[in-house]
Design brief:
By secondary structure, this protein is α+β, with helices and mostly antiparallel strands. The protein has a domain of 117 residues: Alpha-Beta Plaits (2-Layer Sandwich), CATH 3.30.70. The protein is built from 27 helices and eleven strands. Strands 1, 2, 9, 10 and 11 form a five-stranded antiparallel β-sheet that branches. A hairpin with a 6-residue loop joins strand 5 and strand 6. Helix 19 packs antiparallel against helix 21.
Length: 841
Amino acid sequence: MGELLRSEEMTLAQLYLQTESAYSCVSELGEVGMVQFRDLNPDVNVFQRKYVNEVRRCEEMNRILRFVEKEIRHANIPVVDTGENPEVPFPRDMIDLEATFEKIEIELKEINGNQEALKKNFLELSELKHILRRTQQFFNEMEDPALMEESSTLLDPSEVVRAAPLRLGFVAGVINRERIPTFERMLWRVCRGNVFLRQADIEEPLEDPTTSSHVHKSVFIIFFQGDQLKNRVKKICEGFRATLYPCPETSQERKEMAAGVNTRIDDLQMVLSQTEEHRQRVLQAAAKTLRVWFIKVRKMKAVYHTLNLCNLDLTQKCLIAEVWCPLCHLDSIQLALRRGMEKSGSTVPSILNRMQTKQTLPTYNKTTKFTYGFQSLVDAYGIGSYREINPAPYNIITFPFLFAVMFGDMGHGILMTCAALYMVLRERRFIAQKTDAEIINMVFSGRYIILLMGLFSIYTGLIYNECFSKPLNVFGSSWSMAPMFSQTNGVNWTFQVLQENRVLQLDPAVPGVFSGPYPIGIDPIWSLSVNKLNFLNSFKMKMSVILGVSHMLFGVSLSYFNYTYFKKRLSIWLTFVPEIVFMSSLFGYLVLLIFYKWLAYDASTSRNTPSLLIAFINMFLFNYNDTTNQPLYTGQMVIQSLLVIIAILCVPCMLVVKTVILRQEYLQKRSLSSQNFAGVQVANGPTDDEAHIIQHDQLAQPTEEEVDHSEVETVDFVDVAVNQAIHTIEYCLGCVSNTASYLRLWALSLAHAQLSEVLWSMVMHIGLASRNLFGFLGVFFIFAFFATMTVVILLIMEGLSAFLHALRLHWVEFQNKFYTGQGFKFMPFTFDSILEGRSED
């Protein structure tokens, strides 16, 4: 239980690892995952460390594996994940792994290069095939007799004679389809309309061998006269990245070339299919062991990176490492070092030596899959200082409960519980999927928090008697209208009275009207009352104050255990006691007044009930002559005046007394040291062994009082006084502001209830109010809309709002009473992060 309430006890240890067994020992420590290595070479450049070449070789292997993985993903081949956790390979196995990876990389690059060349050749032949087919169509259209006659009638006979010996040149090629309009305009402007362009689209898309994407292209043929226009046309084609192909002038040559192109295309398709099959076989074989290879390489790199943190001794035969480790795992660490020695074949055991240090120790809190989410909420505020009280165990109950106070609805709580139960029962499948969506991972990691929030919401919904904003009439009502119609009680509710009055009040003082408290929760008859909000406001406001003051008093009480553990006796008497007395005298007394008012007044005397708020204000003003607000009990003036005086006296006790006592202790210590220095004391100096022992004793972790005294010696007392004044003022004012902050429990609860009621009355009530066939059919669509709005607004948005407010109440109002959160987290060297898909760093 002590380990649950506080962080684990840590120690600084020194490891002496033999060079031949250091690799195996570090790998075994990585499997255990309970050791955090310190960098003993902070001033040494990364490229000048001992194992930098091995780290580079691991990075090179990792690069090759990433290249293979990219090719596998591109080929849509699934990577086999058997869940195997291979051991760290030995250093001698690195050569075999490098050879295997280099062979796969070279083979894949050769296959890709050959395939790209074949695809490029195939693309050229395909484009040439379309050019030959399209140009043949162009020439056939130009040689059509009807077209020739039509063109000859449009020309003068003398011009026809002059144009007969004219011979035109042409070029044919392929261009991207989207560039055709710009290409045509550029030809017209540069060549001044002296060229003739014909183009046709290629129906099927062609594959780009470089990007493996499909592009749409068009075939074009350009007719011109003269070499000058020919050079201009070729430059324009080059500028628009059009590909030109040789095209024969005669029809027979074009047909022969097309036949040869089709034959070559068929041969290329066969070679490409065989190349792709070979590539698929290589990638499928690599996909079976790719994950295992990744784990091996990353583990090797992590081991060598950790070895670079160690320091070599003078003999160059031993590595020295310093590690943080929990005391409870020292045996498992020793066992891991022994296994590493046996695997390496070394006969010299590794040495684990505990060290004493004054440095701040890391904080390590054991977590399970249930407590992990709550511990993450605490760590998000700040990592706890070493061995101080851990708020996470208490937040397991208080956090979902305060959330449920704001979110209290039985129906919404059931929906939230079902969603959390689904994630809890199928958590293995969720973990195996390993999704990269950050929001999904965050919700899944907090599945147990959501489960408890849903269960507590069901409970508070039962207390509020709300299920989708509607009350449940399980036990009937404790109110009865029958006595109101009875003449014996002096009340005569006739039919005329009921007709003339829209609102009638049930008087609990009349015998038989109120039969006693409701068995559990709120009486369902309040849902019909016009003063429902007034009643719930009073109930929930007082409940918020009670819960808030109790929560804060509990937080102040936890500070006592911190002071006791760290032996801060002065803080117990001059910090804890004044704080608990100050809060109890004022706000604890207010809670007692609330309970007293509930118990002391009944239905017959409730008409003259004094106001607690006015009484509390008059308590601070020492105003007891207020005739509008009578005292609640006899002797109230004396007790309240005494409580206010006690609370006021606590302020200088926290503000001045502690600083004065620390000052006196410092002066006494300094005077005592000066007296010892004035005396003549001669003694032999310690031996080397004794000096070593004394040094270790001086490095021992001091008690908290010694730390306080050492800080007083080195820090100016003006700073100490200012810090103490800030703490006192912050606490005293915080008692008021924090108590008011807990009223958000009341506000959020009423807001959630009213929003749920509005959604029911404005959406669901429409379908339920119709009694015809249209209403019967429309209720299905209305319910779908109602369910969607319930999930989106009331569960997600309102749930997130209540979650953030509950988180603020714990971080600011509760944890600041005892939790400093100024430590640093224990980050052990472990291989589990590799299996979970985290970054290898």
